[in-house]
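Honest question from a wet-lab person: if I give you the sequences of every part of a complex, can you actually get the arrangement of the whole thing, not just the pieces? Trying it with mine:
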Amino acid sequence: MEYFEDSAEASLKCQNLSLTRKSDKRGRFSKVSLNLYVALVHYPVVNKNGDVITSAVTNLDLHDIARAAKTYGIKSFYVVTPLVDQKALVEKIVSHWTEGLGARYNPKRREALELIRIEETLQKVVEDIRKSCSVSPKTVVTSAKNGFRRLSYGNFRGLLKNGKPYLLVLGTAWGLSDSFIAGADYVLAPVKGPADYNHLSVRSAAAIIIDRLMADETC
Amino acid sequence: MEYFEDSAEASLKCQNLSLTRKSDKRGRFSKVSLNLYVALVHYPVVNKNGDVITSAVTNLDLHDIARAAKTYGIKSFYVVTPLVDQKALVEKIVSHWTEGLGARYNPKRREALELIRIEETLQKVVEDIRKSCSVSPKTVVTSAKNGFRRLSYGNFRGLLKNGKPYLLVLGTAWGLSDSFIAGADYVLAPVKGPADYNHLSVRSAAAIIIDRLMADETC
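Yes, you can. This is the full assembly:
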């Protein structure tokens, strides 16, 4: 697998794309806007028994991941659900904070939730990014399961340097389905601590992964 | 400020304390249990106008931070509130997941929520840790505000190597009150991304900080 691809194909049309990138000695980026997008997927995911289901949208997932996305310069945060009523719920939450009373009560929350886009499928997310970047994003999925060849955080940071768009895909419930994972370009290394316990919330996992990829401080 | 204190005073009684510590070349710990405790404080914190208030307990704060604490080998996760009804609420939530139906439905959640302790004040937290470690923990508070001399993540990792207990103190609402911060031993560097936006949820900030301090992978 070649992580450091030729960047010549990278589209200059991609929003806010800067080709003058500075990175510190550990490969971290400083004060540079990169083309990382995040998607939170509610189908196809699995429940605790391994059955493929459509999960319900959780309000705090939207807030927490949007705030982390805004903090680290993520381009857009896509909420993916095929259910009409769930899409309507997300639209209602987002409009409350971006246009309604919430926007006046807490303008900082507005800035974060403005990053949210709602799509029915991951394919539609990919198409939406391709429209603004003129190139489809590579998809990088997360899974706490073993059994996949993994992209390390350092190599993902290296990939981001090539100027092309990347889409980090997070699963809700007990995680993305195996067939969905198999269709991705990369499977990211799981977030692990020293303890033998890998049951972080998707909100916590999102925050940690985005920090590992995008923080401009040494950690 | 001397971060690398003499470890001779460190108590051998501290639970699970191991004096044979291994760390990688970046100072990260591998497979070693350290004496880091976490407290989530609901008083004294400030609201958006800067008034000192007592905040309400948020259910998902308990779950998310307990799960991150379990993942990274945190010793205990203290929920601090002086309000009798809020203490009762936390006790009810914790007992549901550690002894009630929740424990049978999701044993992994039980493992995490078993780390939760409830105390009225930070002073009582400090006393509780002193009882098990025979030495009071140093307190490290978090604040997104500017104006404090900051402990870096690298230096905090260095401190943890000395074998003594440390208590990471997180504020809810709009953060810990200034007088509370002034009484702490250290103020940790804020979590910042490349964007000029520092409004992470306390759940996300907790996950990122604990990962930066305790992850055994290079990131």
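Two things worth pointing out. The radius of gyration of chain B is 17 Å. Chain B has a mean pLDDT of 86.
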